[in-house]
User: Which sequence fits this backbone?
């Protein structure tokens, strides 16, 4: 029967701790992951193909005493998320390309004011409104460089429904630990994929150091993360997007103040590169050719790799689960170890360009922006030409 | 064990629901399942599909590019998805909208899913669940019980009885087809 299906009964019940094995979409899993990680505030504006995350949060947050607000647009959404974070809540929003573009100013503010928050971008075929229901991964560079000025952020890339759950939790962990916005760069194919997944409680998630003591915007450690006071906790608190000193006072004409702050915000991320970098290696030990892939594309890449292995071709896969900071050491380690690298992407070389900086051998790239996932046979055919 | 199932038909026929129930049921049965549906600016009456991969181990690639089982409820879906049938694959088509059976050596079965639904429930609604029952009965890809459980979990209680009956009717239609051949 087509009538009367309750969409959310099996796949969207409230999180009550423990482990539940579910058949869910990636977007549903992200909402459950957020709740499990302690997210208690969501502000957003619905946009395909991310809307089910918002629907999930609207359903789940009231059950755990959290707050959900539908805002008038994405600029307001990210602003509300920043405000909620400064009121002490783990906060997030979800969007897709057009909304992500609108959020850029607020995201820069979040980086500069060291505001922990999580942004899930379920990427669709851009640019502009593009094809709303179709897949893409064209926001990779935008997540790193869409904000003006030099910023360092963290961006994670899930390839399964399980990772929509796991990496949403990790995004909160890193956001709280490092006091910065963390991006989950998903794509439509993963967001709308149904899969068997475990909504488990086997994880650690950091809590920011919430304190009125110390300096909220400065640290003796040049890569330090200062304690974060919250509005309502009694401190006289000044939060500004202008250059500020360690107490938050505007310092808009002092070269040292600006250099010191920008440098610490960069080093906060870059000095922890090893901890932040997360890659997965498949069949690389004796590989002559390595595929470097991420997101849903990496699922198809692994299938292509396995098919070619059966045909005796020595090929492996380096799967990037962290896109930013870029796993440059892991790419450099391929140099001299494999003869050539193949980078398939649902954009025109946004990660291939980064790979080029660290890998000097033969680099073949395949960019596809037709709103469809890259077929296994397409990747296999591209790889076969490299042997 | 890895089985790739594709349901195809028209928006409004419950194609996505059939696939979702199968994935949900496989998960309840302890298997791994992956599903994807056609997704776009579609509406009732336009082409749609729902794919499910079932496996006893983790699924590497979750999309269906070739199907071991094709269950279609429109001629257009049959024509469109038949080329994606794996060698040795099985095809089930609702005979209500069937105009021409596929040529060549295809294990093809025309099944009266809509006719059964109309006869039993006075409505075409339910034909999708009859078809799901046919697939279960004919292929044994999954036992009936987890699908019944999936229906109880995802469908509003007042529709349980009708859906469970539709599933049973389909299952009985499908069972004699398990031997193979054409019908």
Assistant:
């Amino acid at each position: 029967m087509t009538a009367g299906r309750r969409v959310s009964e099996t796949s969207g019940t409230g999180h009550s701790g423990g482990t539940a094995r579910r058949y869910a979409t990636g977007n549903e899993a992200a909402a459950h992951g957020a709740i499990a990680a302690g997210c208690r505030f969501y502000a957003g504006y619905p946009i395909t193909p991310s809307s089910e995350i918002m629907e999930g949060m609207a359903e789940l947050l009231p059950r755990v005493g959290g707050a959900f607000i539908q805002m008038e647009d994405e600029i307001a959404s990210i602003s509300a998320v920043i405000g909620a974070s400064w009121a002490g809540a783990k906060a997030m929003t979800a969007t897709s390309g057009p909304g992500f573009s609108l959020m850029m100013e607020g995201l820069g503010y979040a980086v500069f004011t060291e505001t922990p928050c999580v942004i899930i971008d379920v990427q669709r075929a851009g640019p502009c409104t593009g094809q709303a229901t179709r897949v893409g991964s064209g926001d990779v560079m935008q997540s790193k460089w869409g904000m003006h000025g030099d910023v360092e952020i963290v961006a994670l890339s899930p390839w399964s429904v399980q990772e929509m759950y796991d990496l949403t939790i990790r995004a909160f962990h890193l956001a709280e630990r490092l006091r910065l916005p963390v991006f989950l760069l998903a794509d439509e194919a993963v967001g709308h994929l149904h899969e068997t997944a475990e909504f488990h409680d086997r994880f650690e998630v950091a809590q920011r150091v919430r304190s009125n003591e110390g300096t909220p915007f400065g640290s003796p450690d040049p890569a330090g993360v200062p304690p974060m006071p919250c509005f309502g906790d009694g401190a006289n608190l000044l939060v500004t997007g202008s250059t500020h000193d360690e107490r938050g006072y505007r310092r808009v004409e002092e070269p040292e103040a600006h250099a010191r702050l920008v440098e610490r915000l960069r080093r906060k991320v870059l000095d922890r590169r090893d901890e932040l970098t997360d890659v997965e290696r498949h069949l690389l030990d004796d590989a002559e050719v390595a595929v470097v892939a991420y997101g849903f594309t990496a699922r198809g890449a692994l299938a292509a790799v396995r098919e070619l292995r059966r045909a005796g071709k020595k090929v492996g896969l380096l799967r990037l689960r962290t896109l930013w900071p870029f796993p440059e050491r892991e790419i450099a380690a391929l140099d001299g170890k494999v003869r050539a690298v193949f980078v398939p992407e649902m954009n025109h070389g946004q990660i291939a360009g980064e790979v080029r900086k660290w890998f000097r051998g033969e680099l073949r790239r395949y960019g596809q922006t037709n709103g469809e996932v890259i077929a296994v046979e397409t990747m296999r055919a591209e790889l076969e030409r490299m042997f | 064990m890895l089985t790739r199932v594709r349901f195809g038909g028209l928006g409004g026929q419950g194609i996505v629901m059939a696939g979702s129930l199968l994935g949900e049921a496989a998960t309840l049965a302890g298997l791994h399942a992956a599903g994807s549906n056609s997704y776009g600016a579609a509406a009732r009456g336009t082409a749609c599909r729902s794919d499910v991969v079932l496996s006893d181990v983790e699924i590497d690639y979750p999309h269906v590019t070739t199907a071991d089982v094709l269950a279609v409820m429109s001629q257009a879906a049959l024509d469109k998805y038949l080329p994606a049938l794996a060698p040795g694959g099985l095809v089930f088509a609702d005979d209500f909208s069937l105009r021409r059976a596929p040529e060549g050596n295809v294990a093809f079965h025309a099944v009266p899913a809509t006719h059964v639904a109309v006869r039993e429930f006075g409505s075409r609604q339910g034909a999708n669940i009859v078809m799901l029952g046919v697939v279960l009965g004919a292929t044994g890809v999954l036992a009936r019980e987890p699908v019944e459980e999936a229906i109880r979990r995802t469908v509003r209680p007042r529709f349980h009885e009708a859906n469970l009956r539709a599933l049973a009717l389909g299952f009985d239609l499908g069972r004699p087809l398990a031997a193979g051949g054409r019908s």
About this structure: Confidence is low (pLDDT under 50) at residues 1-15 of chain A. The radius of gyration of chain A is 21 Å. The interface with chain B takes residues 1-7, 9-11, 21-23, 49, 133-134, 160, 188-189, 192-196, 299-300, 302-303, 306, 373, 375-377 of chain A (CB under 8 Å). The first strand of chain A starts at residue 20 and ends at 25.
